[in-house]
Amino acid sequence: MPHELKKTVVLVGMMGAGKTAVGTVLARKLGVDFVDQDDEIQKAANRSIAEIFKENGEAFFREKETRVLERLLAGPPCILSTGGGAFLSERNRDLIAAQGVAVWLKAELNLLWARVRYRGTRPLLMTDNPFETLKSLYDARGPVYALAPIHVQVFSNYSIDDTAQAVLETLGTHPGILADDTEITSHARS
Questions:
Q1: How many Å apart are CA 80 and CA 82, to the nearest integer?
Q2: So what's the pLDDT on residue 165?
Q3: 135-190 pLDDT, tens per residue?
Q4: Cβ atoms within 10 A of the Cβ of 35, count?
Q5: 173-184 tens-digit pLDDT
Q6: What is the pTM of this model?
Q7: Torsion angle, CA of 44/45/51/54, rounded to 10 degrees?
Q8: 20 is in an annotated binding site
Q9: CA of 160: how far to CAs of 31, 50, 113, 123, in Å?
Q10: Which end of the chain is more exposed for a tag (fewer CB within 10 A), N or C?
Q11: DSSP secondary structure string for all residues of 70-125
């Protein structure tokens, strides 16, 4: 059954949870744009995330992140992938709750580590012991991600498409996010 997205779906969760990959497929299934917040920050700053962190620090980056989030949420409904730290800010959580809906892609630590361990593009993992850093982030951020109104478990044996379908099905159980074709037809007649 075709669906119309009524509000922006903001994917939150740890690095490696699949926010970008799943978000891209989910957007295609819904026929809406997929937007990666980190890509938009990099375009606005004309620098990579790693360069922003190195040259200006995390506080500067977080302020830019909030400004970009505000701009994206003010646009048409889309699937929006956030950076791993974006949802930690109460201000960002309030913006998302007011204009969209947060979906936590919840993945176990070992799955996240398997996905991020060989990528050199994660500034927060550029430490002497990246696994311990990831574990500390996982332990600290989990309770905050749990504040998202919708949780979808990410499984290692699920394909990206399977996870996107699980998100879509979960969205369908929450009123006010998707309009099914009955709602779309009745709005067209009004």
A1: 6
A2: 96
A3: 999 999 999 999 999 999 999 999 999 999 999 999 999 999 998 644 433 343 34
A4: 19
A5: 999 999 864 443
A6: 0.88
A7: -120
A8: yes
A9: 17, 26, 17, 25
A10: C
A11: HHHHTSS--EEEPPTTGGGSHHHHHHHHHHEEEEEEE--HHHHHHHHTT-S--GGG
Question: Is 140 annotated as contributing to ligand binding?
Answer: no
Residue-averaged pLDDT of the chain = 88
Q: Which two tokens stand for residue 93?
A: 């959580």
7 marked ligand binding residue: no
Q: State yes or no: 31 annotated in a binding site.
A: no
Listed residue (86, 82, 113, 102) closest to 16, CA to CA: 113
Domain ranges of the chain: 3-178
Sign of CA dihedral 122, 16, 168, 12: negative
CA distance 45 to 61: 10
Q: Is 62 annotated as a binding residue?
A: yes
The response to whether 84 counts as a known ligand-binding position is yes
Residue 115 marked ligand-binding: no
Q: Known binder of ligand: residue 18?
A: yes
What is the CATH topology of the domain spanning 3-178? Rossmann fold (3.40.50)
